[in-house]
Amino acid sequence: MPRFTSLAAGLLLSAASLTSAAASGDSMLEYLNRHAGDYADIADAIWDNAELGYQETKSSTLLRETLAGEGFAIETGVAGIPTAFVASYGKGGPVIALLAEFDALPGISQSANPVREEVEGKNAGHACGHHLFGAGSVAAATAVKRWLEQNDIPGTVRLYGTPAEEGGSGKVYMVRAGLFDDVDAVLVWHPGDRNTSDPATSLANKSAKFRFYGQSSHAAVAPERGRSALDGVEAMNFMVNMMREHVPQESRIHYVITSGGSAPNVVPDFAEVFYYVRHPKAAELQKIWTRVMAAAEGAAQGTGTRLEAEVIHGNHSMLPNETLATAMHKRLEEVGGVQYDAAERAYADKISKTLNLSEDLTGMEARVEPMEFIQGMGSTDVGDVSWQVPTVEMGAATWVPGTAPHSWQAIAAGGMSIGHKGMMVAAKTMALTAADLYQNPQLLKAAQEEFEQRRGKDFHYEALLGDRAPPLDYRK
Fold first, then answer.
1. How confident is the model at residue 24 (pLDDT cuts 50, 70, 90)?
2. DSSP state at residue 368
3. How far apart (Å, rounded) are the C-alpha atoms in residues 202 and 294?
4. What distance in Å separates the CA atoms of residue 367 and residue 365, rounded to the nearest whole number?
5. Which Pfam families match (predicted)?
6. Among 414, 387, 400, 448, which residue's Cα sits nearest to residue 101?
7. Distance between CA atoms of residues 252 and 202, nearest Å
8. Taking 70 as the threshold, does the pLDDT of residue 19 lie above it?
9. At a CB cut-off of 8 Å and minimum separation 6, what does 146 contact?
10. Alpha-carbon radius of gyration of the chain
11. Among candidates 292, 294, 296, which has minimal Cα distance to 234?
12. Kindly report the CA angle at 201 between 409 and 82, in degrees rounded to 5?
């Protein structure tokens, strides 16, 4: 991996500029401190809505109305997605963008209490903290907007409302529509259990629903007349599971059977399996995907069934940018981590007892982790953005240390003050980093040069999900 740290450090603001930035930073931090409760209320409303991908009508509306009330120009329904939007303030360059997610996860429900407690009638939850993600990014964008306005600084701050990150690839359609073509840098964050700003990458990811169609019949009286769609699903799964031994070890393949029939004595004429396939490199992912498709086709042929495959989403890996990560890490160290009060410490202790931790992580929420290159094993549609624009992502401790994403513990802490405090760490860090970028053209230039070097001169972007329209009903 090329090392850009020394260059990036040298491009941070001069002493005089830092003094100016610190004064303007104080103004932004004062605003964010003063309105922390307002943004916590917004996050809590989205937490309570817990709307699934492409169905986030209330959550999207709340964020749009908040930004419109601050003087942002709002463009709604972008890229053919009703809940996607772009909010802009200012004119000319540089254009610094922030991303806001707000979709929940299906099949997981939890109150804000530190014990397992499902909420009756609620079948979705913010187990990945996107309610905080959206509200925190809006807070940062608003602070930057006010700073640009008060100091008469040229440039544009833009916030992208990006639906359906969880398996819906909302950002990919926005990239494909050219909505990031004039952006100079993207700042993004994600809830987590620690405070980080790393030049990290992730796994490229592609998914599809494989639908098998057979012939129903009485499973005992006339089995010879039936052709089991479930046999097709099981034959495909068997072949793919054997294939696991013969793919690169960093690959990931997982599936769920979403439909397998209704009664044992009826040969099912329809069955469906939903697959995710991941690899660090998009080119290798495509090779594995070709083999998975061949297994599906072979399964259909061998069971006398008919196959339909619908690609649902596809994400590129994150393209790291060490120049931006270094600048953001400096600001994160200045902001610092999350400080628990006595009640929050007691709450965290109760959560910790449910995590089966092998080490004591007490106090990790208050630290800022050293910057290092990270090969993440998850996937995100931010990856596609990062191949179009220099992008940096930070993490903030919105969960009790040791908490895994997509867990009830993440929902719980994200619904109370621990989550709110971590959200404001992210908002402050992103706002200060944006101010640095507006005031230091050389820093932006260095980030762009690194971006072009890492991407390669022959790079040509192609969406892994092809030319399909957004799957607006994939969660229905």
1. low
2. B
3. 26
4. 6
5. M20_dimer, Peptidase_M20
6. 414
7. 12
8. no
9. 27, 28, 31, 70
10. 23
11. 296
12. 70
Cα separation, 322 vs 41, whole angstroms: 34
- 174 to 60, 183, 292: CA distances (angstroms): 15, 13, 28
Q: Are 104 and 446 in contact (CB under 8 A)?
A: no
Query: In three state form, how does the secondary structure of 83-141 look?
Result: CCEEEEEEECCCEEEEEECCCCEECCCCCCCCCCCCCCCCCEECCCCHHHHHHHHHHHH
Question: For the chain, how far is it from start to end, CA to CA, in angstroms?
Answer: 42
Distance CA 387, CA 83 (A): 24
d(CA 255, CA 39): 37
Report yes or no: 213 and 269 within 8 Å, Cβ to Cβ: yes
Sign of CA dihedral 173, 188, 100, 440: negative
What mean pLDDT comes out for the span 197-219? Answer: 95
Give the pLDDT confidence of 302-340 residue by residue, as tens digits. 999 999 999 999 999 999 999 999 999 999 999 999 999
Cβ neighbours, 10 Å, residue 62: 20
Cα of 390 vs its chain's centroid, Å = 17
Q: How far is the C-alpha of 325 from the C-alpha of 332, rounded, in Å?
A: 10
Q: Is 63 helix (H, G, I), strand (E, B) or coil?
A: helix
What are the C-alpha distances in Å from 258 to residues 108, 109, 171, 379?
16, 20, 25, 22
- Cα separation, 218 vs 224, whole angstroms: 9
Q: Are the beta carbons of 336 and 261 closer than 8 angstroms?
A: no
- How many of the other CB atoms lie within 10 Å of CB of 75? 13
Quote the CA–CA distance of 250 and 230 in Å, as a whole number: 30
Beta strands in 298-403 (DSSP E): 306-315, 391-397
Give the model confidence (pLDDT) of 281-304 as tens digits. 999 999 999 999 999 999 999 999
- DSSP β-bridge partners for residue 276: 207, 254
Question: Which tokens is 212 given?
Answer: 């098998």
Strand-pair category, 204-213 with 306-315:
antiparallel
DSSP, residue by residue, 391-412: EEEEEEE-S-TTPPTTSHHHHH
8 A C-beta contact, residue 299 and residue 232 = yes
Q: For residue 444, how far is the Cα from the chain centroid?
A: 24
Nearest Cα neighbor of 399 from 126, 88, 16, 30 is 126
Token look-up 């495909």 returns 236
* Helix ranges (DSSP H) in 244-321: 282-303
At 436, list the tokens.
């640095």
Give residue 225's identity as a one-letter amino acid code.
R
Q: What is the pTM of this model?
A: 0.91
